[in-house]
């Protein structure tokens, strides 16, 4: 099923033994367009604390009621490495976090999730919650040989940061740069099994008689963090004439098929 990630802060988080807070954000891997982490804000339970949760540590989400059940205990969440709001998530930090929770590294292997096709296959049905509380090993950064460049590599971007970026399309069919503004990023549509981003929701409401339309993520050519713009390989007319989607509503298989056909993309 394809689902919307709109308004991430609305998702309630419940651990195996009680409420732990709300979702604050989702972190997107901009190299292959996959949601790698959820940022959990523990609120009044642990004031001022935020921690990461992998999709592998989630039970089946209740998307319609904005509830994300977490396959961890409150003790495990409390003992997890804290997240520094002012620092980006480096590969070194991810490595230490994985060492703490016993998670496989998603960047090792040929599949979308390392050696696994989807996050749910990275841990057994009860493995996450049954783990004892661990700690980050003193040599966690050395558990996998890495260059300094790899350790400091930043490839994770905030959904809340991406939302609002301007979307630029090509003025015509020629192989020209995307220079025409056609809207802004309003939402991301993901495959709930793999957590891979399938579509960008483009909000064209700044134009008269406009609408929200889908842009296949395969047509994203560049995400410029300095100018806050997304450059697409689609033409201005293609985006303008794309099938419309209701804001925040699930994307049906029919709409996905129509959208892929409109852009001349192979069906997933």
What attributes does this structure have?
elongated; Photosynthetic Reaction Center, Chain H, domain 2; 17% helix; 268 residues; 7-stranded mixed sheet; 6-stranded mixed sheet; alpha+beta
Please render the helix and strand layout as text.
Elements: E1 2-4, E2 12-15, E3 18-29, E4 34-41, E5 50-53, E6 67-69, H1 74-79, H2 91-101, H3 127-130, H4 148-151, E7 156-158, H5 159-162, E8 166-170, E9 180-191, E10 197-203, E11 212-216, E12 220-224, E13 229-235, H6 236-241, H7 253-262
Parallel strand pairs: 2-6, 8-13
Antiparallel strand pairs: 1-9, 2-3, 3-4, 3-7, 4-5, 8-9, 9-10, 10-11, 12-13
- The CATH architecture of the largest domain is Alpha-Beta Complex
- Sketch the major β-sheet: 7 strands, mixed
Oligomer: single chain
Mean pLDDT: 85
**Beta-strand percent range:** 25-35%
Question: Structural class of the helices, strands and pairings?
Answer: alpha+beta
How many domains would you count in the coordinates? 2
Overall radius of gyration: 19 Å
Describe the global form.
Answer: elongated
Report the uncertain regions.
132-143
User: In DSSP terms, counting alpha (H) and pi (I) runs of 4 or more, how many helices?
Assistant: 7
Helix proportion range: 10-25%
Please tally the β strands and state the result.
13
Distance between the termini: 12 Å
């Amino acid at each position: 099923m394809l689902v919307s990630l709109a308004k991430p802060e609305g998702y309630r988080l419940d651990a195996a033994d009680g409420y732990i807070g709300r979702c604050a954000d989702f972190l997107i891997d901009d190299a292959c367009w996959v949601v790698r982490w959820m940022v959990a804000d523990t609120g009044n339970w642990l004031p001022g604390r935020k921690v990461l949760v992998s999709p592998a540590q989630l039970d089946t989400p209740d998307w319609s009621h904005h509830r994300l059940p977490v396959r961890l205990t409150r003790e495990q969440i409390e003992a997890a490495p804290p997240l520094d709001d002012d620092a980006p998530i480096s590969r070194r930090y991810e490595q230490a976090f994985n060492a703490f929770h016993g998670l496989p590294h998603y960047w090792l292997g040929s599949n979308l999730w390392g050696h696994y096709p989807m996050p749910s296959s990275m841990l057994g049905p009860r493995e996450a919650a049954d783990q004892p509380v661990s700690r980050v090993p003193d040599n966690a950064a050395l558990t996998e040989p890495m260059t300094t460049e790899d350790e400091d590599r930043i490839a994770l971007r905030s959904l809340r940061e991406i939302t609002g970026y301007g979307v630029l399309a090509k003025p015509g069919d020629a192989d020209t740069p995307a220079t025409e503004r056609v809207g802004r990023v309003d939402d991301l549509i993901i495959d709930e099994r793999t957590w891979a981003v399938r579509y960008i929701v483009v909000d064209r409401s700044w134009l008269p008689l406009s609408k929200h339309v889908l842009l296949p993520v395969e047509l994203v050519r560049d995400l410029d963090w300095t100018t806050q713009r997304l450059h697409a390989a689609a033409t201005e007319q293609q985006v303008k004439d794309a099938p419309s989607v209701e804001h925040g509503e699930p994307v049906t298989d029919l709409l996905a098929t129509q959208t892929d056909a409109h852009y001349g993309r192979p069906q997933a």
